[in-house]
Amino acid sequence: MARVFVAGVGMIPFSKPGKSDSFDVMAEQAIGLALREAGVEYRSVQQAYAGYVYGDSTCGQAALYRVGMTGIPVFNLNNNCATGSSALLLARQAIESGQIDCALAFGFEQMNPGALASAWSDRPDPMARWNEQSQRLQPAPDAYPAPHLFGGAGLEYQRLHGTRDETFAKISEKARRHARHNERAIFREPITVEDVLASPVIYGPLTKLQCCPPTCGAAAAILVSEAFARKHGLSGDVAILAQAMTTDYESTFSAGSMIKAVGYDMAREAARAVYEAAGIGPDELDVVELHDCFTANELLAYEALGLTAEGTAERFIWDGDNTYGGKVVTNPSGGLLSKGHPLGATGLAQCTELVEQLRGLCGPRQVESARLALQHNIGIGGACVVTLYGKV
């Protein structure tokens, strides 16, 4: 198996719907940034993996052809919110297997305002089982599906552990504080816990300021083998040390739990596999970019990823163990809550942040002496990808 390095990453500033370029232009810009940082010419790329959720077939080619037309295989992927990291995983596998030496993974999304909605009404809804279960467990016929699922998981956690509403709001306050120094984030203005709680209630403990915004954007990564990096004099300082992908287990529906329905077991098992493969524990991590589509999911992810024991997330938050000066810095980018969440681009935006952290390029938001970084990207429906990067 060939060792895989992240030679270059790139992402454009995220923006609100209606304020961005078209998807193909955004993708071209992000790919160009990644190629330039890597010091690789496009003709060296042997395969490309394009991730997007809302778009027609071959959008990946439409975007990539703006960069060049060299006849390489282009794979279009849709794995809901885990799309970007799914593209990253396939690119890594292709290199690790020895089939190729240089791959491009990129993701993009041109979204519409408002809550997520299905694009098709004339065929079975792939989210039907999740929506039916959430309505059975916590009936709320007027609630939007995604915040109902994640807000319901937060409500279930509150009932189990007595967690205060302020604890969930504290996560949004932290996200804005981190995003203040990220010029590519949408929301950079500081907010208080009181501001968060005063915003309109969406469902359960979730208020509007605890929900990630629909976003447009693009991000990309160039992956190479060790031999390719050495031959071309490329940076070999950041490697993918371990990576795992999971899909749903029977417990998603059999447990009768909203927490399970939003992917807790997928995340826990993917993280376990990564730690085992790398021979490390979660206490050794320096920085984490995790999937905070809603504050409830960030809280659950702390425990699923092993950053704190089950039932202790509230103390973890109020002790400041999730930020600078604590045990592990989570979402220094501002996360999905503040940076934004263009579905297909999110996994590669997380990759960009972590690679830049390991290279010491993050300025005021730099995590001091970062050497091990974990990425958690989840999509309901379902898929979860956990990736461990290391400075080598």
TrEMBL record:
Pfam families xrefs: Thiolase_C_1, Thiolase_N
GO MF assignments: acetyl-CoA C-acyltransferase activity; lipid binding
Domain of life: Bacteria
Domain named Thiolase N-terminal: residues: 5-112
The entry's keywords: Lipid transport, Lipid-binding, Peroxisome, Transferase, Transport
Subcellular location field: Peroxisome
Residue span(s) of domain Thiolase C-terminal: 262-381
EC number: 2.3.1.176
One of the GO biological process terms: small molecule metabolic process
The protein's name: propanoyl-CoA C-acyltransferase
